[in-house]
Amino acid sequence: MVDRKDIGSWLSGPDTSNISKYPGERLGLPESGRGSMARAGRRIVALCIDWGLSHLIAIAFFNADPTAILAIFAIEQMLLVGTLGYSVGHRIMGIQVMSIDGGPPGLLAGVVRAVLLCLLIPVIITDADHRGLHDKAMKTILVRR
């Protein structure tokens, strides 16, 4: 015989006990302030700054060639994120790329992240912690400084 407990489980909705309350909680990061996950607004503004800077360089040296803009952007991301952990836009917006264990991302992570960032689709697909596929692939996070 069907008991009320049997149908009560679907009436009460899904189990939400293991869903994190804020982005980065599952990674052990604070909810806000220094060391918290960088939110979409800061990321988008940083991306626009980096893209605009790449565009200005391409206008000055390559007659605004779209391929040059993309190449300059990719090189900036590879070198600066791979070595320093942040691009010019990241620095202005107060965010930084780190590996999951808290160390610097490394040059390989900078290269892979830049290639995937230029493809755009991996950046759009994010998880509950606001990590895009490019971050998940290289086990990196973008945090507030």
From TrEMBL:
It is found in: Cell membrane. InterPro entries: Pra-immunoreactive, RDD, UCP021697. The keyword Membrane applies. Pfam families: RDD (PF06271). Signal peptide: none annotated. Keywords: Cell membrane, Membrane, Transmembrane, Transmembrane helix. The chain crosses the membrane at residues 44-62, 68-86, 107-125. This is RDD family protein. It comes from Arthrobacter psychrolactophilus. The lineage of its organism: Bacteria, Bacillati, Actinomycetota, Actinomycetes, Micrococcales.
